[in-house]
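writing this on my phone so excuse typos. first protein, seq and then structure
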Amino acid sequence: MPLSPLPLDTRTFPDIVAQLVRRIPIHNPEWTNFSRNDPGITILEVAAFLLENDIYVANQIPERNRRKFLELLGVPLQPATAARGLVAFADDRGPPVTLTFNEGIELRAQAVPFRTERGLDVLPIEAQAYFKKAVDRPELLDYYKLLHASQTVPPADAAISLYETTALGPDGFSPDDAIDRSLWIGLFARQTEKDQLDAVRQQIAGRTLSLGVVPSLQASDVDLLPQKTAGTDAKGTLRVFLPKLPPGGLLSEDQPQPSYQALQADAVSDVTIAPGIVEVALPSNPSDLSLWQNLGPLDSGVGDFPPSIDDTEQSARILTWLRVRSPVDLLWVGINCTQVTQRAHVAGEALQNGTGDPDQQATLARAPVLPETVRIFVTADAPDASAEEWQEIDDLFAAGPEVPAPDPRLPPGTALAPNDLVNVFAVDPEAGAVKFGDGLRGARPALGARIRADYDYGVGKAGNVGAGAINAGPSLPGGFTVTNPVPTWGGADAETPDQGEKQIPRYLQHHDRLVSAEDFEVLTWRTPGVDLGRVEVLPAFHPDLSPNLPGDAAGVVTVVLIPNGGGEPDQALCDAVAAWLDPRRLVTTELVLSGPVYVPVQVSVAVEVVPGMAPSTVQQAVKQTLTDFLSPLPPPGTEPLDDRAALLTTPAQAAAARGWPLGKAVQALELQAVASRVPGVQLVHPVDLYKVTLPADPTGQKTLTLLDPIAIDGLALPQILAVQVGIGDTPPSFDDVGESTPATTVPVPIIPETC
């Protein structure tokens, strides 16, 4: 049964009245009439009634007082996190002039404010990304071989392979899809400057091209080694090349093939694991931004030349090509991009003037406040006094005193240890509260001192807007447009008081440090900005060293992450959890963050239905029950077990509340028993279990193997591809399937067939 707190006072109205009446002879012996008709007894009953109300209120412990007590414990609530994203600027109507934008430009997605994090050059050009997609047309090989027989590129005796120039679209780009493993970005003059290519080259020469890159984030993992912090590795970036033109831009007959020069490409962040910006320094000589002058019509797009463009109007506007080599798949690439953060800025907000009292507090008008954005300026109440900026500090107990004083615990003559952390303040970002010192630990704002605050605040989860939602900027010059090519990400609301209260027992246990397995699980769940469906902590286990779950890898902790909705965690999710856990782990702990390894499974079962029940309803119920039973996530609506509930729960019930356990094999008899418990099922016939082998080539076919049991080892979990439920005595059968494979040489573009 649940434990309920004891009341502070158990007395009721009759108890209080009886107690008061018993005291009458002690204080007033002449009073002898104790009946309810006596006016004195009536007065005592009124007093007892008022006291009973006070006892009731005290036993309730008002919510405001209770939360104040919790505040005194010093358990902080998680502040809101700001959403981040990429935006691309375009100059649609202005003159062909490069403008430089500073950081901090305000942009809007309707009422949600964003600000740019980095300045950039907005080049007056357009861009389009292409790649050479291989085409399997063997019947055309002889034709194109004959067509290029008189050309030096390719050589007459060279084998050729055909490709089609493909624009980068919603499906993204994979190096494996391109015949030369390259992405080509064409830089074009705008339609209004199609006859002024040299003037446009003059404008962009020597400028920085801000290339926005969105990787195609796949399942990944993160390994944090002992004594190593996250983010110390070199930033992953792209390699960008520009055509290296011969003198005069004329290809010689001796060297008909092009050559390329590498450009300086600096990644602002690791664009191989998260959307980011690569700043490409363009050459200062405008002639380096042109193309070959004597390239023949049949040479265009052949070999290492940039892809051929069939649109003559667009090809007439080409300035130059960038050849991009990427180690990962890309979802989107564009120019004139920068990063944005969802935040709004408040400048010069007036707070309560200094009182001179210890522990003065002030509340900012907007909350939640983004961490590390608060700046406090204090101006003394004196003529010609200038504003002094005070410093934010995490803990006021680390601050020094207003007036240096010797420590009486030290011997006489000991020099005073300097402490410059005097004019400081602490901030509670979630509540927007600013607290100053008490004189001994940090200075007090002087009486009458004027206090001003600058800070940024956010809207939390509401900052996660869809692609194209950021489309306005009050300070943008005329003719400029802006958009976000992909949805923003990372915004999370502040923790509510109710959620924070649930963390108090855990917080008092782990003190925001990762020591026990429970600490790893609790703190992983609290990672801001991620949506987790399940967390498994495996101490002394490394997936590359321990073949099975009972690992013996000392000092290693593996945390298995499953996103809400299933599947595998992408790199962005793993990086967010790694950045959150890294400063909280012990320096001797190696932390491995990983997703599960899924074993594809298909299930076929035949059931007989109780007479009078609808077969279709029972059929669907059995299918849903088996799917939920094999799911790696808890059934929908299942709440995580708290500490008290877990003590009163059997191991089987606890496992069901988490999803399919790691390391547990899938057995047909167990599924048969689960199906038999579905209402309306009269009899369950033997279950057919199939282990599925998926082809490496997405166009290939999968193969099914009838197997019982299906082993689930290490970090593996079953992945249900299909559940078939038949009515009768024969399980439905799946169609058998097989496989397929594809080929390379001198790339040659094909001419698209048109009617």
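second protein below, same order as before
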Amino acid sequence: MRRRIWTVTPWFFIFSIAMLVMACVTYKYDTTAAFTELGVAVGSSVIVFIFTFRFRRHVDRTIKGIFSGVSEINRSFLERFKMPVVATGKYGDILWSNSRFKKQLCLGRNPLNESIATYLGDREIETVADSEGFELDLNGNHYTVFCTAVSDGYICYYIDNTNYYDVYKKFNDTRKSVALIVFDNREEFSPNSEEESAAVLLELESKLLHYASDNNAFYKKLPSNRYMIVFDKVNLDRQIAEKFPILKEVRGITFNNSVATISIGIGCGCDTLVESEKKARKALDMALGRGGDQVAVMKDDTYEFFGGVSAGIEKMSKVRSRVIATSISRVISESDRVLIMGHRFSDLDSVGAAVGLQPVIRDAFKKPCYVVINKQTSMAKSLIELVEADNRDVFITPEEAAHNLSVKTLMIIVDTHIPDFVESPELLSKCRKVVVIDHHRKNVNYIDDALVFFHEPTVSSASEMVTELITYLGENCVSRLQAEALLSGIMLDTKNFVLRTGVRTFEAAAFLRKKGADTVETKELFSSSLETHKKKYKIVDNAEIVCGCAVAATLDEDPNIRMVAAQAADELLTVENVAASFVIFASDGVLNISARSYGRLNVQLVMEVLGGGGHQNMAAAQLSNITLSEAREKLIAAIRVCIEDN
């Protein structure tokens, strides 16, 4: 005890000697001042000595308390311990450390009275005490740190596993990840001359080859315009950080106003290349299902997406539609009853597709068929009323549909593929046989047990897909009313044949027109009241331009607020230099965002940042437990993220 006091406080003696010398010098000139200085020196020395002594006693008592709290361990044992050990007070001040701690973590210094947080990676010791330990990099070494709470303080142990960590890191960095790549729009370049088409393909393969070489990766060309690249994980991580610049490089390949795009599916984090390749195939299917021109990385059954800024390339063909129609015909024939259900807050596309398909199944296949819908929350009330005036035996509620379910009941989902978004998730979970018909970009949480999954993200609407199908299922069963219902769905999602309108869209519209669809009467289904128009333009009037996007908000609890907000978002797109529009509105206790775009900004990506989804030009999201101003800030932040990324 005494040895530690004297060795730790040498400045005490220096101070005392200096004061004594000063008093002796002063004595020659002024005895009163000399005795005063001598008194101050002696008094100061006594005070310093007392406080130093009391501090040492406090430290020793605390140290004894700490070590007594750890059975069969004492200070001398921990001093000889083959790992760094440190003891602290209850507030994290270092009171003792062994020689290894001083050498390895303090580089030879004595850390007495320093805060332990410096040696815990700025963590508070209370938060890590009695935990399972944590990893820490310090002074070029890697430690696993364990902190134990004892009486009056804490003891921390540092296990140096630098060698193990280096081996693990090298192993992890060299684990193989498989990337499967497909040329999205190869067909667009095929009509050109053979030399020009070959030149485009050669330029693409050259870029992919250089891309693989720059990342020290294995490259191989596969049949059907597909390619494989095998990365080390460290190179994949770099590509993820750079957000896969290869997508932008490939978009630089153009010919006659056609822009080349690729989709990449990557499987990583697997023990074998076979498992990585299986995940890569799933990831590629997801990337293509979301419209292409993007990268989907699959790890541990989760996805991460990059890119997706280009419009999807129309790929649906009559051959595929006929094959799908044949599969659906077989499933319907094996069923005893068919239910058709769309998404919650159904719109003209959802209801139109269901109404167009219902009489075909009922009359061509002679099966009982009903449309499951919640009329109160639907945004297609005008169409529902028109159909009910013609035939009331079409719509049923989810509760009515649940009464007569059997193992042979078939559920056809239209205009969505996400189980949580359907009109009744409970009813869907009770049906063993499911068919999905949807055009929205593929979401990670999709209905994965469907007997037939008819998904085409490049098609304008579910109504267009159903129109294509019924030409093979039974076009003679379509009346004028059903034709107008399907046409209204196409007109809604294409904004009157402006957005996502391909050749097959006009072919479907021509077929419906031939079946008697009246464009004037169809347009009347979009009519709304004067009050609705006033509320719509009130929202438009309050909009602001942020990052080239129109952002508006309202807390109006109108029963038709969803339709009003959607119309306001459409109206805002007509404003000059607006790339996309977003309307925030309240409904059912949560804040909703309706997003629209003409394609310059992918609003699906923006909504996915906020937990929503949809299509490149039409998407939505819901935000719970948040104020309107907070929702607006989160939306603007998401817009900025997507603009910066793309």
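The chain has 25 helices and 25 strands. thats all i got for now
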